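Researcher: Going back to the complex we discussed earlier. I've cleaned up the inputs and rechecked each line, so this should be the final set. Can you rerun the prediction on the complete assembly and write out the structure?
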Amino acid sequence: MPTTLEPVRPAAPAADRPVPAGPRAVFAARRAGAAAEPAWLREAREAGLRRFEQTGYPTLTDEDWRFTNLAPLTQLPFQPAPEPAVLTPVEAALERQPFHGLPGPVLVFVDGYFAPQLSTGLQPPGRDGAAVIGNLRAALAHDPDRLAALLTRHAPADDHAFTALNQAFFTDGAYLRVPAGCALEAPVHLVFLGSGRRDATASFARNLIHVGAGARLTVIEYSADLADRGSVANHVTELVAEDGAELEHLKFQDQPAGAFEVSGLYVHLGRRVKFFSHSFALGARLSRHHIRLGLRGEDTEAVLNGLYLVNGERLADHHMLVEHASPRCASHEYFNGILADRARGVFHGRILVRPGAQKTDAKQTNKNLLLSDDAVVDTKPQLEIYADDVKCTHGATVGQLHPEHIFYLRARGIPRETARQMLIHAFAGEIIDRVQCAAAREALDRLIWDRLETEERLGLGARD
Amino acid sequence: MEPILEIQDLHAGVDGREILKGISLTIRPGEVHAIMGPNGSGKSTLAAVLAGREGYTVSAGTVRYLGQDLLEMAPEDRARAGLFLAFQYPVEIPGVNSTYFLKAALNEVRKARGLPELDAVEFLQFVRERIKLLELNEDLLKRPVNVGFSGGEKKRNEIFQMAVLEPKLAVLDETDSGLDIDALRVVAGGVNKLRRPDNAQLVITHYQRLLNYIVPDYVHVLCDGRIVKSGDKRLALELEEKGYDWIQGCTLCEPCTLTPA
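Model: Rerun complete. Updated structure for the full complex:
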């Protein structure tokens, strides 16, 4: 029943690519020690690994990766984090995260492993008709058949090497199930922390979120690292929303300056769904967030909203594929980038309108604010349309702060630095304002303002 | 009495082109001065140089403001010292909320005057009282600065900001342009109510019409970067009647006509 998102141009396996020897050996060792998993999952993991071995890591010659040089990541030894033997103290890091103190259950994962003692508001699977808020491993043990129909079905391993690797190596993640007609009012917080342990360069989390017909859910994913040791976070979220569901997914990436994060959000939407996705990328040496959105039922509306705010040598990449497979759906993408120093931003947005998806309303906007002469942005909107009665637009802008705006504010007594911060904040505010969850929106607004004021952190000093 | 503004032999221009060619002007507390002149005579350049807009070069002369060298001051320092420019073309600033902006501006100005910052409640009370002067809708306060405002609302918003910031010297750069007669009356009424014995206003305009409502003590005619004639309010009426051509020295400018209001 679940349809996978067909990759339109699958990366061709190439024999001449360097395939690290590591993954197979790690895989075999894990398999030997791991608790028995259902056969279908063992097969899926094996298939994920095979897929990765066929393709290897992408390189700059891959069209979808030509702006993002992965060499610093792919040269790292393949070293997935083993299950921690002792508890990592992460309370302080939890308190630092911007959504700390907000209402709602909190699920904490350290290096991709569930930390129940740090998590609150869990709802284990119980009677039918009640929501489940817990971790994937527990759900796999409790209800493997239900998961068999969903897990790995929406995030195809052949999308790209990182999803393949995740499929082979994911350790745990969140499992959220909201039954039909049920509404979770408070947001569910998923917190992914890297421990910074020396033996852990890579972590793999996999989340599965299933929202029933007419159900409502808000999910906030936050990822960061306790120490800056150049680790790689590879997180995949599969999200299925049935007819009439309302769903808001907010991802906030705040990794340290040396870290890498490659993540994927795979979304399958039924009919009359209202969906919001927000991606905030503030950290990491290199981050790449994939969104694969399948509009599979009629009259569904999706907003993909995002902000990347990067300085130093950071690179923030968003790679989106929105697939209109049904009539009368709307997808609106809004991504703003703020880039300082020698930072780089990449926006790759592709809209695919399948035959028969008439009355599609697809819009894509990417605006970039460059705060230095050395900042670079590569923006690549793409429309691919196979229906004749559609409204599709895209636009991209790259610019600087407007000197007339700065002068107007200064002419009213506002110091130049404050004027610049107000204007940058306003640019970020266009994105923040679309967050529906009021508590999260306010927390983000405060956080962005604090970051702008902390000049040394963002390097946004006067340079106009 | 100590002058608020003292301009002496000011030469200034843009891109190496001299636009102001020796302006001298003294403004004392309680005075309203009008500067009239045809297009291209240098009116807006004078306003820009006084406010500290980038891109203008002063090649000679001095400007003293309350005893300080105005030209040495950053635009925000001029504003904090009580100089206010009502823009001819107020810019729209998307995403910057009007209330937030105005509160930041007022608190900067108050800080400079040694006054405590207003809290949110005090501030709202104050601006609500002031916004009535300009007959503006309070909803404007919730919108981004000037975004989606009509031309008339933008101009009234400038004078509303002036009412909030209570400047020592207000420079009104063609505040009348683009206003219909009703809006003109409201704007002029607002400006007049802000007039005090210890402040001053410099009204820059092409037309005499505004001066029916904001009655100046002195009128100066600017032509080709120089003040070619000064007088009292009767000079404005004379200009209205005879046109700028009547002023000696104005032949250097593009031919112009005074359109009756």
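Model: Worth noting: Chain A has eleven helices and 19 strands.
Researcher: Good, that matches what I expected from the previous run.
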